[in-house]
């Protein structure tokens, strides 16, 4: 699980209330996906860990920019090791989110990024580039909304993956909020979060997002130098505990739905495509600002 490394709309709105200056940030995620049966036979489970660090700067006029560097690993465990399409996959990414006001009510978000996704032993051929951008309008004190898009190069071909998204931060009731959901990790898909503020320090959320992770394979295995892909739609319930403004701890559980694994050879031809059954997800995450 994870997403383009950028400030979510809700987080950016909160950042505007902070004093001007630099804010270092560290966040991380550990997630376990239970066994999922593949429609072609066999199955797999996975462990994911990600750690991200960086800093965000806000000037007195309300604009903010920063840099974020993350490292993660997905450890796949296939039931038939001799026929495993790939092994552990590493992810390294760097992003530079930039947000500024345009007029009295509009806010612009631009987040270019570069990332490397692949098994150990892969080189520059695992590099991709892209940008996530959008504009939102403060319709009222409770609603900020607007269109966005992502455009990213893809491993294994010359196509550019372009997808629409929605920037939204809607406090439609005193304790309820619907907001854009961004993740930590390799995902490039958008998501939404429905949150209920149970107390001053506890939030409950239902989070859904589209996951699409592509990665370069090493020169050993079923498709030497090829590309692997893991697509899914994770839906989780999360409990978030924020004892102070600089610390957030979360636990979550749910399911990974509509999953699919795809294997392509070095020429870009698909040699295997398998869907997998819904799988359970459990995990923890944290965020620290200083």
Describe this structure in words.
This protein is mainly β. It has a single domain, classed as Beta Barrel (Porin). Helix content is 2%, strand content 66%. The protein is built from one helix and 17 strands. It has a 17-stranded antiparallel β-sheet that branches. Strand 5 (98-102) and strand 6 (106-118) form a beta hairpin. The longest helix is centred in the first third of the chain and has 7 residues, at 9-15. Mean pLDDT is 89; it is low at 1-17.
Give the helix proportion (percent range). Answer: under 10%
Number of domains: 1
Contiguous uncertain segments of 5+ residues = 1-17
Rg is: 19 Å
- Helical stretch tally: 1
The helix/strand class is mainly beta
Q: Globular, elongated, flat, extended or rod-shaped: what is the shape?
A: globular
State the CATH architecture.
Beta Barrel
The first-level CATH class name: Mainly Beta
Largest sheet, described in full? Answer: 17 strands, antiparallel
Report the β-strand fraction as a percent range: over 45%
CATH topology (fold) name = Porin
Count all strands and give the number. Answer: 17
Mean pLDDT: 89
Q: Could you spell the SSE succession in H and E letters?
A: HEEEEEEEEEEEEEEEEE
The CATH H-level superfamily is monomeric porin ompg
Distance between the termini: 25 Å
